[in-house]
Design brief:
Layout (H helix, E strand, L loop, with lengths): L3 H42 L15 H12 L4 E12 L4 E10 L4 E10 L3 E9 L2 E3 L6 E3 L8 H7 L7 E11 L2 E13 L3 E10 L6 E11 L6 E15 L22 H6 L2 E3 L3 E2 L8 E8 L6 E7 L7 E7 L16 E7 L2 E8 L23 E7 L4 E7 L11 H9 L2 E3 L4
Antiparallel strand pairs: 1-2, 1-11, 2-3, 3-4, 4-5, 5-6, 7-8, 8-9, 9-10, 10-11, 12-21, 13-14, 14-15, 15-16, 16-20, 17-18, 18-19, 19-20
Length: about 425
């Protein structure tokens, strides 16, 4: 006969022998539950440790911009990118920007719709080469470039907020639970207003296209307190066949930036020398097109402006006609370091000038007090004396791009290729 007390002791002992197994099973279940919960919260909320970046991802700012240009260069296709920005604070509002990018041609079209609490604005621009055209006649500036990238790649990733000094850096970060490249920019501007900002652009390490952007900054316009700026931008992209796009989508004339010149002014001026409506260039000199005709000095003075047909540079070649009484070298060429070369050209006698653009009022001097003329000239021009006028050929710069006509060889080619245009009957 078994005593009841002993049965209870034996039952407790049996439980004690089984408890390590039960504890182990309980621990395993807890770990599995925690892991599942962690996975669920990372998935739902986008938190936790992101996956590592793909092997060979861009490791510098310059390399990032090169990868972007390579990623969007698809023959027969154009990138269509939509950027939706929401701004908070006193300057709050919504902005939608659409860009179409044909990287093979180096062109971008941008359309902007900005709506704030008080205003609404629409804008259009076109980038071609290193030139950005606005939506008003004659609006042409040097396209923004940053990080060592082309103007096209710089527009896809952006070049920071506003103007002023910028610093860029590249790091690894996280966006919604995934590992991404983070292009950080800090900028400031001091002028009529004081502005500063910090921006983070999140870039996919697989496609090298932007995913989102966050920006915080301040702007002080002299108000009682600075205005805080806070923006968040989301990006969407698709590649569309270029054959489906409008034929003039990337043409500056489609947004009113360029118009056919009024040849009536040439007709009223009578006989004069010019480079034609189109100038073919040659010998590494790009083609030019006649873009503007405006009055100049003298009763029949005219300035003919020629721009690059491919948008390669924002500067223009100006052919100015002056009367004989207004001939001679302009004061700009009265440079102690200027070099001259005379030669005969079909239009008459040409003088080529190699001159300098000084940062200060007077040219630098050497140890003896003489003008320091040892370095290469920084600008070139030509004056052609014809039978009935003086033609001055100069380069008017709208940026820092290299203009192949800003050389002695370029000026000589322009002077030799001036042709006589007679007044139509």
């Amino acid at each position: 006969m078994v005593r009841p007390g002993f049965d209870r002791i034996r039952h407790v002992g049996s439980n004690l022998r089984r408890r390590p197994t039960l504890l182990a099973l309980a621990c395993v279940a807890a770990v599995v539950t925690l892991a599942a919960s962690a996975w669920m919260w990372r998935t739902v909320l986008g938190i936790g440790e992101p996956a590592p970046l793909p092997t060979g991802a861009a490791s510098s700012v310059d390399e990032l911009y090169r990868r972007v240009e390579s990623a969007i260069s698809r023959p027969g296709f154009a990138l269509h990118q939509t950027e939706s920005t929401k701004s908070r604070g006193l300057l709050g509002g919504e902005t939608t920007e659409e860009i179409w990018v044909d990287a093979a041609r180096g062109v971008v079209r941008e359309e902007t719709h900005e709506k704030t609490r008080r205003t609404e604005r629409r804008d259009r621009s076109i980038i071609s080469g290193n030139v950005q055209y606005g939506n008003t006649l004659g609006s042409r500036i040097e396209a923004t470039r940053c990080g060592g990238g082309s103007a096209v790649a710089s527009r896809v990733l952006g070049c920071g907020y506003g103007i002023g000094l910028k610093t860029l850096s590249l790091s690894v970060g996280e966006w919604e639970g995934r590992a991404v490249l983070v292009l950080s920019q800090h900028g400031s501007y001091q002028g009529e207003s004081s502005e500063s900002y910090a921006e983070k652009l999140y870039v996919s390490p697989e496609t090298y296209l932007p995913i989102a952007k966050e920006m915080e900054g301040t702007a002080d316009f002299g108000a009682p307190f600075p205005i805080k700026i806070s923006n968040r931008t989301e990006y969407r992209q698709e590649f569309v066949p270029t054959k489906t796009l409008a034929a003039d989508l990337f043409d500056p004339r489609s947004i009113g930036a360029v118009a056919e010149p009024n040849l009536g002014r040439l007709n009223r001026a009578g006989t004069l020398y010019w480079l034609g409506k189109r100038y073919a260039g040659g010998d590494h000199l790009p083609p030019l097109r006649l873009e503007g005709i405006v009055p100049a000095q003298g009763p029949k003075g005219l300035v003919l402006s020629y721009a690059f047909m491919n948008g390669g540079d924002a500067s223009t070649v100006e052919v100015e006609h002056r009367g004989l009484a207004l001939g001679g070298a302009p004061g700009f060429f009265a440079d102690p370091c200027a070099r001259q070369q005379s030669l005969d050209v079909p239009a008459g006698r040409a003088t080529l000038y190699s001159v300098y653009v000084w940062e200060h009022a007077d040219p630098p001097t050497d140890t003896m007090g003489n003008p320091g003329c040892s370095r290469p000239p920084t600008n070139h021009a030509a004056i052609v004396q014809t039978d009935n006028s003086v033609v001055v050929i100069t380069i008017v710069s709208a940026g820092r791009g290299k203009n192949p006509y800003r050389t002695q060889a370029g000026m000589e080619a322009l002077a030799r290729d001036l042709t006589l245009r007679t007044k139509p009957r």
